[in-house]
Specification:
The protein is an alpha+beta fold. It contains 6 helices and 10 strands, in the order H-E-H-E-E-H-H-E-E-E-E-E-E-E-H-H. The C terminus is likely disordered.
């Protein structure tokens, strides 16, 4: 029996996750944790503006946060959700990456990524995606707010569903108060559903896997305070990939043809652009393109 759930409850949640591709966990964070995390986000916005990447007028992401602050360690190690993640991934669970996500009010309701799977955008490589993500809500997400939307079972039973064939209005909106957590398989098709009258949505997001020889992302450094930690409450390999250099070929890896001196924010924007192109048409490599990228997303008949 865990601290928060019985063995029967954990087994049922693991079964539900493997069937649906996601779980919603109410009250995953306490009121005190929500307040601490929001204050830490405010501090980080002010102190480390270079960590923040604007992917659109509504989407801002804080990357490589961990070397600058320990304020979010307790989210990565959150006891309540880690019990569930261990039930899903087993004791070889490892931490992969972490980011802060801000979704700001906008009149442009076309989401920059559209329906997609995480880590790898090429449809014919979808079976290679094998990681689990968690999103913590730091603000209330009502029916009128930007929200996380998902296509249930698209990680497994509907694995042959192409994200480009998913209608814009499809899927399930996962709404809930601040403190809610969503755990989802990175192979599940999902989207950020933008709403006309939304307030700012704040979330923390982390990824985990059970593969020990490869990382999903090279943007997140794992600092010494984490990989040198000795905590019997944590899984044995939790921070073991701090020095793994074998990075999954996908949207978490710097392409070999990109200028090594290019700032990280520009690298990530270019990687995301290429990922979008791999979903919708031929990839254009060479000098980094600038300006808006037009895509023609197919709709299902």
């Amino acid at each position: 029996m865990g601290q928060f759930f019985t063995e029967t409850e954990l087994q049922q949640m693991a079964r539900d996750f493997h069937e649906l591709g996601y779980l919603c966990i109410p009250a995953a964070l306490t009121t005190e944790q929500i307040d601490r995390f929001n204050q830490a986000v405010d501090r980080h916005l002010t102190a480390f503006p270079g960590d923040w990447i604007s992917l659109s007028d509504s989407f801002c992401e804080g990357t490589n946060v961990l070397p600058h602050t320990a304020a979010f360690d307790e989210a990565i190690e959150n006891s309540k959700t880690l019990e569930i993640l261990r039930a899903i991934l087993g004791e070889q669970i490892t931490f992969e990456e972490f980011a802060i996500m801000l979704r700001n009010p906008t009149a442009n309701l076309k989401e920059v990524k559209g329906w997609h799977r995480d880590l790898i955008r090429e449809f014919d490589r979808r079976a290679e995606i094998d990681a689990v993500s968690i999103i913590f809500y730091l603000t209330d997400v009502s029916e009128s707010d930007h929200c996380f939307a998902i296509i249930p079972e698209s990680h497994q039973r509907l694995i042959d569903l192409d994200p480009l064939d998913v209608p814009q209005e499809a899927g399930i909106d996962l709404i809930g108060p601040a403190g809610t957590a969503v755990i989802f398989h990175a192979r599940a098709i999902h989207n950020g559903r933008l709403k006309q009258n939304s307030t700012q949505r704040r979330t923390l997001q982390a990824y985990y896997s059970s593969r020990l020889d490869q990382r999903t992302n090279e943007w997140t450094e794992i600092p010494a305070r984490l990989y040198q930690k000795h905590d019997s409450k944590l899984p044995p390999y939790f921070y073991s990939k701090w020095n793994v250099t074998n990075i999954l070929e996908g949207v978490g890896k710097r392409p070999a043809d990109i200028d090594p001196e290019l700032p990280l924010d520009q690298v990530i924007k270019e990687v995301q652009r290429r990922g979008k192109m791999k979903m919708t048409g031929p990839i254009i490599t060479g000098p980094m393109m600038t300006g808006p990228i037009s895509t023609n997303l197919r709709q299902s008949e």
